[in-house]
Amino acid sequence: MRSGGYEAGRGVLVTTRRTGTDAVCFRPPTPPVALLAPRPRPARVPLAPAQERMWQAARLGRSADWNVARAMRLRGAPVDVTALRAAIGHLVRRHEPLRTRYPVTEHGPVQVVADPAEVALDVAESGVTEAELGPAIAALARLPFDLATDLPLRARMYVLAPDDVVIALVVHHISVDGRSMGPLIRDLITAYLSCRAGTAPDWAPLPITYTDYTLWKHEQLGEFTDEWSRATHQLRYWANALAGRPALLDLPVREPSGPQADPATGALLPISFDARAHAGLLRLAQDGRASLFMVLQAAFAVAVGAFARSRDVTVATAVSGRDHRLLDDLVGNFSDDVLMRVRLDRAGDVDELVDQVRRVALAAYAHPDTPNPRLKRCLLQDATFPLFQATLILQRAETPRAATEPGAGLSITEVPTGVIRAKHDLEFGLTEHYDSHGAPAGIDGSFIYPTARFDEDTADRFVARFRAVVGLLADGYRGPLPPLLAASGRSRSLAPARRAVTVLV
C-alpha cells in the first residue's frame, strides 16, 4: 500500500510504501544538474514556461493587452534617421526573441527564430506635431500582433524637427519582460552611436541565446508525464496549496451600463510613502525575518480581504526568473506570476500574518515554473475565472549608472507612452528608493484598475484602505487584525492621493 504527502517545511514529496509492519520512504531521484550553455538546435523549440500564458491570451483575442511600449526622444543635435533605422536592425540581429514567431504545430506552439538575413523590419518615418505625438504612440501601442506570422516588434520614428525625433518601440510581452528594457534600450543607443559614426556596434557577444535558455529550462523541469519530474512536483504543490480557496473574490464592481467597454482599458492612481513610513516598514520586516516586499504583500492581502469581505485571499506577484548570471543581458521573457494564498482567519496578529506571508512567499518562490493555463486545468473551479485578481509588484530603484554620452549636444530621454492596460482587477506597481548612503528614501508607484469594473470613487477607497493599513504597520501597530481590516482613512505618514489618470486605448 502506498501513501504520500509533503514533508513539513521542506516541499519534498515523500511516498510511503508499507509491507507488513515495515514502512519505507521513497524520495524522487535528484535530477541531473543542467548546464546553461549554447546547445544544438532541435527541430522543434517549445515555448518557455513564462511564455505560455501570453500565447494563450493572444489565442483568445487579447494579444494587445500584452504589448510593451517604450519611446525615446533624441534631440539637441541633428538626428541621423538612417543610422537610427540601421541601429534597430542591429538590435534585432543581436536578440533572437525580437525576430521570433510563435506558430502552433501538431506538437503545440513553438518558437521559430527567423534568420537575420530574412528579417525586413518596416521602420516607418512620419512627421508629427507635439500635439499629434502622444496619440500616434498610443495608436501604435494598441495594435495587436499575430504571433504566428508577425515579428513581435514594431518600430516607428516620429520626426518633430531635424534635431527632435522620437523612436517608439512596441514589443509583445511573449518576447520581453520588464528587465529586458535595460539591455534593449542600452544596446539600441550603443548601436545608434556606432552607426552614426559609420561603424558596427562593438558590443560583447552574448554568451547564450533565449533558445539555449528555453532548452535548459525544459531540461531542468522535465516532463509532466513523469511523476518524479520537477514540473510535476511544482504542479502538485500548486494544486494542493490552492485547493478549496474561493474561486472568485466578491469585489464591489460597478454595474455595466451602455455598450460593452474594453475590459482592459485602465486608469492609474499614483501612490507614494515617505521615508519615515519606509523605515517603519523595514523595521517590521527585520523583526519578522521578512523582506519589505513580504510586509507590503501582507498589507495588500489585508486590504484586498477587507475590500472583498473575505478572510481567504489569493494575491500574486511576478518573479524575474533570471536566476543565472548569463541571463542578465538577454532580451526575452523570463518572468512569471506566482500566487500567494493568505489565510487572514489563521493569523491572530500582525506578527503571525507577516510570518504566514513570509512562509507562503518562500514556498511560491520555490515553485515558479508552472504555467497558469496548465494550473487552471488542475483546479476545481470554473475555467473562465482568473487564477488571481490582485497583484502587487515591488522593485528596487537601480543605482543610476553613468549614462552613455551621445556627444555633440544630443540628449536621449524616455517619453511616456500614455498607454494604461489593466490586465487584473487590482494592481500595484511599487518602487523602493534609497539615498546614496543606503538609507530608506521612500516608496512610490501606481495603482492600476480596469475602468469597466470600478469607478474612480471605488478605486480611491481601495487605495485609501491600502494606505491606512500600510500607515498603521509603519507606525508600529502589531496587534490583532480586526483594526487593520477596518482601516479606511489616510495615515499621517503618507503622501496625499492624487486624482486618477485615464487613457482610452
Describe this structure in words.
The chain is of the alpha+beta class and 505 residues long. It contains twelve helices and 19 strands. The chain has helices at residues 52-59, 81-94, 130-141, 181-196, 210-221, 230-241, 275-287, 292-308, 350-365, 372-378, 456-474, 482-486, and strands spanning 2-7, 12-19, 22-26, 45-46, 67-75, 100-101, 104-105, 108-113, 123-127, 153-161, 164-172, 266-273, 312-319, 336-343, 390-396, 411-415, 426-434, 440-450, 501-502. The strands form five sheets. It has a five-stranded mixed beta sheet, sandwiched between helices. The chain has a five-stranded mixed beta sheet with strand order 15-17-18-12-19, with helices on one face. Helix 8 crosses helix 9. The protein starts with a strand and ends with a strand.
Task: Describe how the helices and strands are arranged.
Elements: E1 2-7, E2 12-19, E3 22-26, E4 45-46, H1 52-59, E5 67-75, H2 81-94, E6 100-101, E7 104-105, E8 108-113, E9 123-127, H3 130-141, E10 153-161, E11 164-172, H4 181-196, H5 210-221, H6 230-241, E12 266-273, H7 275-287, H8 292-308, E13 312-319, E14 336-343, H9 350-365, H10 372-378, E15 390-396, E16 411-415, E17 426-434, E18 440-450, H11 456-474, H12 482-486, E19 501-502
Parallel strand pairs: 9-10, 15-17
Antiparallel strand pairs: 1-2, 2-3, 4-8, 5-11, 5-16, 6-8, 7-8, 10-11, 12-18, 12-19, 13-14, 17-18
Helix pairs in contact: 2-4, 7-8, 7-11, 8-9, 8-11
